[in-house]
Design goal:
The complex is a heterodimer of chains A (327) and B (286). Chain A has helices at residues 44-50, 77-87, 95-98, 105-116, 121-134, 140-144, 153-165, 183-200, 211-217, 235-240, 245-252, 315-325; strands at residues 2-12, 21-29, 33-37, 60-67, 70-71, 88-91, 171-175, 203-208, 220-225, 228-234, 303-305, 308-310. With 327 residues, chain A is of the alpha/beta class. Chain A has one domain: P-loop containing nucleotide triphosphate hydrolases (Rossmann fold, 3-Layer(aba) Sandwich). In chain A, helix 4 (105-116) crosses helix 5 (121-134) and helix 5 packs across helix 7. Chain B has 286 residues and is mostly helical. Chain B has 12 helices and no strands. In chain B, helix 3 (22-39) packs across helix 5. The chains are: A alpha/beta (327), B mainly alpha (286).
Chain lengths: 327, 286
Amino acid sequence: MPILEYEALEVALPGMARPILDGVSLSVAEGEAVALVGESGSGKSVTARAALGLLPAGARVGGQVRVGGAELIGADADTVRAVRTGKASMIFQDPRAGINPVRRVGDFLTEQLRLVGGRSKAEAEARVLELLGAVGLPDPPRHLRQYPHQMSGGMLQRVMIAGALTADPRLLLCDEPTTALDVTTQAEIMAILRRLQREKGLGLLLITHDLDLAAATCDRIYVMYAGRIVETGTAAELLAAPRHPYTAGLLGSSPPLHGELTRLVPIPGSPMSLAQSAPGCAFFDRCHFAQPGRCDQAAPPLAPLGAGMVACHRVDELANSAAQEIR
Amino acid sequence: MSISTSLLGNPLGALRRIGGGPLTRVSTLVLVLFVLAALFAPWLSPQDPTFGELGNNFVAPSPEHWLGTDGGGHDTFSALIEGTRTSLVGPLAVVVFATIGGIAVGLFTAWRGGWVDTVVGRVLDILFAFPALLLAILAVALFGKGLTAPVLAMAVAYLPYTARLVRSLTAQEKVRPYIAAYQVQGHSAVFVALRRLLPGIMPTVLAQSTVNFGYALLDLAALSFLGLGVQPPTPDWGAMINQGQAAVLQGEPLSAIVPAVAVVLVVVAFNVVGEHLGDRLAGRES
């Protein structure tokens, strides 16, 4: 049974031209690492936050989100709390913003165990010290007494990871966990996340805009555009043979990790805002292969193709060759 | 070193630590002196300010009557000191009620959001339209003269200022990721709002309340001046100014000037200190 399962999740804000999320279906199995990739504003963070019952205020919500079998959409406070305290936890993008700046790091880390889990201070501290060791923070006892401003971003993100693990979750949601860090620290943090995920057999949903990072870290990848999943497949497949023009565009616009550096091709235009909507494919305006009269008529459904799924009207004609061309 | 030990051990050092320019320091000193006067009034006032010798009215300042006597022969200096109590306790009560109420309203509405926020926001707008003094006079008309009715009415009138400030600060803090981090840890909304969000915004709220204190003092003194607040013989600055009116016309302005100067000093001092606190917080946040 998947630890995390979205079924046709729909989130819409009143007064907006298009929904934030439009029929998102996604699953993460126990012990599986899955990435959700997309540009800013594609809805990936909203997707992740929905798994913890954090939805935008005033939003209209449809579909289903299940964490460990517990349905979250329309759930009562107790169900949501049970998911938050035992099943899933989240690592936020900027640890400096995600940790209360006016309280000691030790308070932030032990509070969940003490105040929600009902453990004693000594028990909570012992558990936290163990976790701080596991995330590779030197001299944990000293850090418990420090304030967030006394620590570096990389150290704080380790604290955040330790904090997410205190309640022994089965699912870890990582919302761009390395975006706010510098490059060398990013690699360390990703290595820690991968190691812990494997050791503990956690389900992991990584939110990122970096397709290469996603492919290097995760088993499967979902690519999101304007609130919809446009392509999904195994990491290796997706990286080697992207089939949606958007996925291919993402790959073509970032430098490869290995091999010769070729000319980078940006995706023209800008992502569709919430104030815009299109009757057809949301990527129509920016797509190299868009065919007027076909692509702008109806939104392409997410259809199985090979081992993965793609939402593109012209996927059959384009096959791999055309999409490869723009790389 | 905690603030209390530094105050006891080295008062001048503590004054220096407050920072700011000379104006801020002098204002702080003024406030400390008046608070001390209020606390120790019975021991500090040389004479019973309610005891008047009619044959001894309008005495000029002398070793026996430091600031002279008023038209009823009461010692002005003693009345000033004893009056510090009622003059400070009134605004204190107003500010305490307004701050607690404002925090409750502001925090709740900003946290809930939606229509509750909108409706309460409009109600606060309506309250804003009533001058505090007018509301206090209405309360006196309904419930009688004295300190209680005006203080309660003014607490209601001052509540929107704090409520609106707390509301905007809470709305600002609430969307910050650390609040979401607390929520996903499974803490209750009440815990996150009251125990984690509120302490973070408290300094700004208290700075606003300090400024409010000055205005509340001014309003309550005005009310006493109109004869609707604290009633003689209880010493009160506003009431002293009221009774000094006749004396001013008789060419003996001292008994009215003294309490008036005290009101001005305290109000200005509260404003200066409050603004300084606000500036310091703004500087710290930027």
